[in-house]
Design a protein that fits this description.
Layout: H1 13-19, H2 31-49, H3 54-73, H4 90-97, H5 101-104, H6 110-121, E1 125-130, E2 140-143, H7 144-162, E3 167-172, H8 177-189, E4 190-194, H9 201-210, E5 215-219, H10 231-237, E6 243-247, E7 254-255, H11 256-261, E8 279-284, E9 294-298, H12 299-312, E10 320-322, H13 330-342, E11 346-350, H14 358-362, H15 364-370, E12 375-378, H16 380-387, E13 401-404, H17 411-421, E14 425-429, E15 439-440, E16 454-455, E17 460-464, E18 477-482, E19 506-514, E20 520-525, E21 530-532, E22 535-537, H18 539-547, E23 552-562, E24 566-575, H19 583-590, E25 604-606, H20 620-638, E26 646-652, E27 655-661, H21 667-678, E28 684-688
Helix pairs in contact: 2-3, 6-7, 7-8, 9-10, 12-13, 16-17
Length: 689
């Protein structure tokens, strides 16, 4: 039951007497009319607030909240929480889907759902922020009452700064509490665009402009994470930006935390109430280069993906999830974030660097024990790291589940983790375009090797052939999904072609199949497929074989250009600490494990680390660039006319390309030789000068 914090109104004596009695014992005539009267009075107050002073708004907010609290506590109104569902298999999903949709999703918007959770679980922890990787320092804690108050304050702040216009909030924040206040508060009053702060200033400016943002919230000057240095260039390049707020403060910017404290936290000072079909957020996708590509989310998309994930994971208010993912990624925001918050669970944020904080990771199991973590949120590269970290005598008895997604889960990696730590692993398939979730392996079902689990309730997943027809069970094809989690498309509708169909399907680009029980299997990405002389090779087959070796920590297979076959498979490998196996020995090891002779890698290259995205996914374009560079440099060395030619392989908006720089004295001869060299390759290139 929610009790107001020190920033919220206390119940008076009469209210307290009423609220102390069980709601079921109260019998009042015309209770429904009384609830309507309270709701109507509150709405009138909200409408009046737009024409009142801040102090008058604050007084009315407090009065309205008190009436709502009393009404809920004496049984005049239900707190309206969504009802949890136990999912053990496809039959349970079908039973949920057979009922009216409102039985599954009762809330009208994300903020509506969070308000209901806070009403029920006000004194439970919502967020716990580990500011530094020091076990002697306690986490900073927000109860649901304090959390929802700060979300309201953020919404009121953005409404005031927008001055009657729609709030369009861009966010450049690491995974810290203020990021949650910004995201959920911004969605309550407008549209939020969380942006990857690791991008260069030019790309960030393009995203801010494409999102039509009028407010920017960014991390101020910080010795550990430099985001603020990009802000001056963003201000100059983005004329729509009217206000810039700095978390932690900064010169020439509004102090986000100070502004937040000045806002009322016990109600909203604006009348806008978003509905399920209203736009909530814009999430960028399509990698780190190229023109802005913003996927639209409605409140309904986010609610469906997050609540469905919570049911698949059997999440409830007793859970504590370790979520180190940034909120510019749907995993941090919805798969591992909102899903927990809608359940009344606690979200632990492990420093502003998240799981990239090496000092935190060295002590991760101690922090898991201290914070009583029950669910671990990961990607496969994090699992590989955890497999190499000894838990010692840390008590992990409360940890019931490890969740992973973002890239295919190698079976050997999952098995190794389960055997070492005795914690079950469950896999997730999702996309930015559908709020992060398509299918999940249910917690209450056994893990099926290679499976991404069952589609969410009210969601259909199909594998399709090249002619668009639906594949038979277990027949591979390109996966597509349709359901309430699928967003309305990109802000630039011209980019919907090939991804969003007119009849509601989202084409994922994943290669996989659906079995007879409805489980979804992903074997690779359509664009990741290695095509050797018209023979399609799934890179996952090579990666699985390499990960069988006990000395291999990570593996990634890509296509390497070849004059005759178009491309041939090769693999990059990171060995475990202390391992000394050679590339040739690894090649000999995997040969019997790869049934298709064309899929045997032409070569294996050992690296100290693989290039990763901000959330720990292997960034294969960088590996393809390295493979292309290896081949082209070798070919350049064969021809006397190309001696001294400089080569760079670039990751550009239209894909990978090669840039050659030649000596002026031999330019004509070198250009001819380069043209001859590049003729067999389907690689864009240019020669300078």
């Amino acid at each position: 039951e929610m009790l107001p914090s020190d920033a919220e109104p206390a119940l008076d004596a009469d209210d307290a007497k009423l609220s102390a009695q069980p709601g079921a014992a109260i019998v009042m005539p015309n209770a429904a009319n009384e609830a309507k009267r309270i709701g109507a009075r509150t709405m009138v107050q909200l409408q009046q607030n737009g024409h009142e002073s801040h102090g008058a708004q604050d007084n009315r907010c407090r009065s309205g909240l008190r009436e709502q609290l009393v009404a809920a506590r004496i049984g005049l109104v239900d707190d309206g929480l969504m009802t949890p569902c136990r999912i053990t298999g496809a039959a349970d999903v079908a039973a949920i889907t057979a009922k009216p949709y409102d039985d599954f999703i009762a809330a009208h918007s994300v903020i509506d759902a969070l308000e209901r959770v806070a009403l029920r679980h006000g004194e439970r922890n919502a967020l716990a922020y580990i500011a530094a990787p020091d076990l002697a320092l306690p986490a900073q804690v927000w109860t649901y009452a304090r959390f929802i108050a700060d979300v309201r304050r953020a919404a009121n702040l953005f409404a005031r700064l927008s001055d009657g216009a729609d709030a369009r909030v861009a966010m450049l924040l690491p995974p810290i509490p203020q990021a949650h206040f910004t995201l959920w508060g911004g969605e309550a009053v407008g549209v939020v665009c969380p942006i990857n702060f690791l991008l260069n200033s030019g790309h960030i400016a393009e995203l801010i402009d494409a999102a039509e943002a009028n407010i920017l919230v960014a991390l101020g000057p910080n010795p550990e994470l430099d985001i603020w240095s990009r802000v001056p260039a963003l201000r100059a390049a983005c004329p729509r930006l009217k206000h810039v707020l700095a978390v932690g403060g900064a010169p020439d910017a509004l102090d986000f935390d100070a502004q937040l404290r000045a806002m009322p936290g016990d109600c909203f000072t604006f009348a806008r109430r978003p509905q399920r079909d209203h736009l909530a957020a814009l999430f960028h996708t399509g990698g780190t280069t190229g023109a802005p590509k913003l996927a639209q989310h409605t409140h309904g998309n986010q609610l469906h993906a997050s609540w469905s994930a919570a049911q698949m994971d059997a999440m409830d208010e007793r859970d504590v999830i370790l979520n180190g993912f940034p909120l510019f990624h749907v995993a941090g925001s919805f798969v591992y974030g909102l899903s927990a918050l809608l359940s009344g669970a606690a979200v632990v944020l492990p420093t502003q660097l998240g799981l990239r904080n090496a000092a935190f990771m060295q002590q991760v199991w101690r922090f898991v024990e201290r914070e009583r973590v029950s669910v671990l949120a990961t990607v496969p590269t994090v699992i590989a790291a955890l497999n190499g970290i000894d838990a010692g005598d840390a008590d992990l008895a409360r940890v019931r589940l490890l969740l992973t997604g973002g890239s295919p889960l190698p079976t050997e990696l999952a098995v190794a983790f389960e055997q070492r730590h005795r914690i079950p692993v469950r896999n997730i398939l999702g996309m930015t375009e559908c709020a992060g979730v398509i299918s999940i392996e249910p917690f209450h079902a056994a893990r099926n090797p290679g499976s991404c689990g069952l589609p969410l309730p009210f969601t259909t997943v199909q594998a399709t052939r090249t002619d668009g027809t639906v594949c038979a069970p277990d027949e591979p094809g390109v996966l597509r999904v349709r359901g309430p989690n699928v967003g309305p498309g990109y802000t630039d509708a011209r980019r919907n072609a090939g991804t969003f169909s007119d009849d509601g399907w989202l084409i994922t680009g994943d290669i996989g199949h659906v079995d007879a029980e409805g489980r979804v299997f992903v074997t690779g990405r359509a664009k990741d497929v290695i095509i050797r002389s018209s023979h399609n090779i799934d890179p996952g087959l090579i990666e699985e074989a390499l990960l069988r070796h006990p000395d291999v920590q990570l593996a990634a297979a890509v296509g390497e250009p070849d004059e005759y076959a178009g491309e041939v498979p090769m693999a990059f490998v990171v060995l475990k600490p202390g391992a000394t196996i050679t590339a040739s020995a690894l090649l000999a090891f995997i040969e019997p494990h790869i049934a298709e002779r064309p899929a045997l890698p032409k070569r294996i290259e050992l690296l100290p680390a693989l290039p990763l995205t901000a959330i720990g996914k292997v960034y294969k374009p960088a590996l393809r660039a390295r493979a292309i560079e290896h081949v082209l440099r070798e070919r350049l060395s064969r021809d006397a006319a190309t001696q001294g030619v400089q080569l760079a392989v670039l990751d550009e908006a239209k894909g990978l390309s090669a840039a050659f720089t030649v000596n002026t004295s031999t330019a004509a001869e070198a250009r001819t030789a380069i043209a001859r060299l590049m003729a067999p390759f389907a690689i864009a290139y240019r020669v300078e000068p």
